[in-house]
Write a structure and sequence with these properties.
This protein has five helices and five strands, in the order H-H-E-H-E-H-E-E-H-E. Helix 2 packs across helix 3. The chain is globular, with a radius of gyration of 15 Å. It starts with 11 loop residues before the first helix and ends in a 28-residue tail after the last strand.
Length: 162
């Protein structure tokens, strides 16, 4: 686990209130690009306290979360008891090979953007599966919209080779 994540162990409740939500346009991205919906199994990797989970739930499908920090995962489980929340990391995902149709990382990919994590994500994705990355923010004229011009963290598409 990244040493910079230490503060999240004691600040899970503050994290929930301090992070911005996601715009409703993210539903179109989840359904149309990532393919989240009924009959699909989706993993939220680095799920934290579940800030992105309300949008994933609106799409339907079978949802699973992986979060390495106990306090964050406990908050997640309290808020979303119907979603399986597993202890694990991007480099050690506790799911079988080819077991999910999509992996979504909401505001988390920078914590584990490395070759080992991508290899593990590739391992659990079913053939044709998608890795979806999304960030949110408060600053700038595009706050609350997915129609912003690309920045250093947005506008990239990463598809694992199968």
């Amino acid at each position: 686990m990244h040493t910079s994540s230490e503060g999240y162990k004691t600040g899970a409740a503050a994290y929930v209130g301090g992070r911005p939500g996601y715009p409703p346009e993210a539903l179109d991205w989840l359904r149309g690009i990532v393919g989240v919906g009924p009959g699909r199994k989706v993993l939220e990797l680095g799920a934290g306290t579940g800030k992105f989970m309300p949008l994933l739930r609106q799409c339907g499908g079978t949802l699973v979360a992986v979060e390495p920090i106990d306090a964050m995962r406990e908050q997640f489980t309290a808020d979303f008891p119907e979603v399986q929340a597993l202890a694990g990391s991007a480099e050690a995902i506790p799911l079988p090979d080819a077991s999910v149709d999509a992996v979504v990382c909401a505001q988390a990919f920078h914590w584990f953007a490395n070759a080992a994590a991508l290899q593990e994500i590739r391992r659990i994705l079913a053939p044709g599966g998608v890795l979806g990355l999304i960030w949110n923010g408060r600053d700038g004229p595009c706050h609350g919209s997915l129609n912003c011009p690309p920045s250093r963290t947005s506008g990239r598409e990463i598809r694992p080779a199968m």
